[in-house]
Structures are given as structure tokens and as C-alpha cells.
Amino acid sequence: MLRYTIHEKQQWRDKVSDIILHHYPESPFSEKIRLILGYQDLSYQSVTIPVIMPKPDLMPLTGGYRKTPVMQIGADIYCDTELIARVIDHLHPENSLYPKGEEASAGTLAQWSDTVLFSLAVSLAFQPKAMAANAMFQDQQRAAEFAADRAELVKGGTQLAMPFEVANGQFLAHIRRLDNQLADGRDFLLGDKPSIADFSTYHCIWFIHNNEAIRDIFSPFGNLSAWRMRMEDFGQGKPVELSGEEALVIASSSEPLTAEKQGGLNPDEIAIGEQVEVLPTDYGLNPVKGALLVSSVEEIAIARTDERVGNLAVHFPRMGFQVRQCD
Ligand SMILES: N[C@@H](CCC(=O)N[C@@H](CS)C(=O)NCC(=O)O)C(=O)O
After folding, report:
1. Owning domain of residue 224
2. Is 68 within a domain?
3. Phi, psi (degrees; rounded to nearest 5) at 38
4. How far is the CA of 102 from the centre of ligand 1 (A)?
5. pLDDT at residue 11 above 70?
6. 64 partner at 20 to 30 Å CA-CA among 32, 176, 313, 316?
7. What is the pLDDT of residue 2?
């Protein structure tokens, strides 16, 4: 069983925020959240998780959701950066990334970037010359394990399958549009302040720029490069290392802080308390089962109990997820 008690960790925890980020350095979606934490100048507890399955210290928390990153606050677990970003914003509204009057344009650009643009970036990042320059693929066995894991991740899904030759031109078309949009001297995509659209765009650009064999695609686009460096300057916040086991101890010593909520609009027509499963609509289609706890236009949460860590609330964004009744 778990070795630490919450009291042993209390003194140390008092110094950092309650946010625990489960992530790994190479993950673009994690970079999106690290940069938001940097922009908000937040401290957080940082758990490095495996790049491929199995993820034995993460599964007890999520109940099967396997994508990266995941955010934990006590016994509340937040899946998918669409929701993670909104929760951080809700906790720190002074510097909101969701500008009033731009809800649809910021939200749509962010969501399109997190899905379509990311999918194009994946095709570019795994073209032969990019893989030859990537340290992770120098070890044959590791490369084969990674390929098998990602084949499993996308099985039955609807994204991340475009050949490089097709994706390259589409990626280029979008980065040229971005460069043109920034040409009027604005600092960020929607104006003088960064919005969620900047962070969702940034992690896709970061992914490609990280690989020196392919980063010359950005050479013609000076406005975009200046913006990328402006974004990079937000930094990564203040991470404090935590082990996966310690994160489980924190979850098992906490109770979820989420109350039952049925939003005014009820798109699923499923009553709170019913047994449901929640899963993404694009890839990584591992269902998470539990009792419906929150059903609102922006969020779905379920209550579940894990034998190692006890009661948990697992939260998902509405966008990109489906919920269905089960036994
Ligand atoms: N829609 C998800 C996408 C997350 C995603 O695809 N993350 C990648 C890493 S950047 C992933 O999960 N890869 C497989 C893994 O880490 O196991 C989000 O916004 O969080």
C-alpha cells in the first residue's frame, strides 16, 4: 500500500499550489499547460509520467483515460487540456485567457488547433528526416514500442492518420495565415493580450520547432517566429517534483470537492447518479466508468471509487467527449 501520509507532506505542500500536473517533457499538450502555468506565474507539483502505456500510477486516478497531460487537485482529476485550461483560468481570473466578446472565435481557433493543426503537426513530426533527428527513435526497441503504443492509441479513432505528403502543404498554408494575421504589429493572435487561441496554436508550432531537422519550415515567417519567442518567454511556471506514488497518496487523503450539478441545458438526458461511461470522440477511446456527477454544457464529471485511492471525481470537457449510459 501507499507509504506516505498527508501530514508528512503537509509542510512541503504549503509552499506550492494544489495543482498537480501529470505530464512528460516531450508532450506538446503538456507544453500548452506548462506555458499557461508560466503565463499565470503559478507554482505546481509536477509528476513525470511514462510516454507510453502502461501508466500504473495514473490509471488509478483517471480510471482508464490515458492521454497526456492530466491535472489533479486533491481527489479531483481533470482530463484534456480544453478543460484543464478553463479550470486554471477559473482559479486565476485576473489574467483570463478567454476574452469577453471573443468566446466563439478564441474557442474555435483553439479547438481547431488542438485537433486539426495538431494532427498535421504529428504527420510532420514523424516524417523520416524528423525521426532520424529525434533522440527517442535512435534506440530500435524503444522506437518499435512507441510505434506499437501509438497504433493502439489511434485504433478506431478519427484523427492522426494523414500522410506527411498531404499534411505538409496544409500545415504550411496555416502557418502562412498565422504570419499574415500577425503582420499588423499585434503581439498575439487576437490582439494585445494572449488568449487560449495562442496557447493551442503554440504547442503545435513548438512540436515542430523542437526538431532542428524540420524547423526551417518557419524561416519565411518572421512575424510568426517573433510571436513564438514572445510566447516561449512566458516560461513554465514553478514546478516542484512529485512522484506518482506521492500523487496517489494526496488523492487517497482527499475527498472530491465537486458537488452534483445538472446544468440548465441537459444535452444527454441522463440523470445525475446514473452509471455512465465517458470517452473521447477522436482517439484514445478508452472509456471511464462511473456515476454521472456533473452534466453541463461545458463539462461532464463522474464519481468513481478506486481500490487504491478511494473516491474521485473525474472531469472531462464537453467538447471532444461523449457520454453514454451503461450498466
Ligand atoms: N485532446 C487532448 C489531446 C492530448 C494528447 O493527444 N496528448 C498526447 C501527448 S501530447 C497523448 O496523449 N499521447 C499519448 C500518451 O501520452 O499516452 C488534450 O487536449 O489534452
Report:
1. 101-231
2. yes
3. -65, -45
4. 26
5. no
6. 32
7. 45
DSSP helix/strand/coil, 280: strand
Distance 285 CA to ligand 1 centre (A): 12
Q: What are phi and psi of 35, to 5 degrees?
A: -70, -35
Query: Which ligand 1 atom minimizes the distance to the CA of 320?
Result: 1
Condensed to tens digits (0 to 9), the pLDDT of residues 253-288 reads 999 999 999 988 888 899 999 999 999 999 999 999
Count of the separate structural domains present in the chain = 2
Grid coordinates belonging to 157: 479513432
Q: At what angle do helices 118-125 and 28-39 cross, to 10 degrees?
A: 120
The pLDDT tens digits for 80-114 are 999 999 999 998 899 999 999 999 999 999 999 99
- Asked which of 19-23, 162-166, 272-276 is least confident by mean pLDDT, the reply is 162-166
Residues 256, 74: Cα–Cα separation, whole Å: 7
Do 89 and 39 sit in the same domain of this protein?
yes
Q: What is the DSSP string of 99-138?
A: -TT-HHHHHHHHHHIIIIIHHHHHHHHTSHHHHHT-GGGS
CA-84 nearest atom, ligand 1: 20
| Amino acid identity for residue 176 in this structure | R
Q: Which residue's C-alpha comes closest to atom 8 of ligand 1? A: 68
pLDDT tens for 117-162 read: 999 999 999 999 999 998 888 999 999 999 999 999 999 987 777 8
Helix residue ranges per DSSP H, 126-268? 128-132, 140-154, 164-181, 196-209, 222-232, 244-252
Confidence of residue 8 (pLDDT cuts 50, 70, 90): very low
- Domain match, 226 and 249 both: no
Q: Are residues 213 and 245 in the same domain?
A: no
Residue 69 CA to residue 149 CA, distance in Å, equals: 16
Distance between CA atoms of residues 74 and 281, nearest Å: 27
Alpha-carbon distance of 160 to 67, in angstroms, equals 14
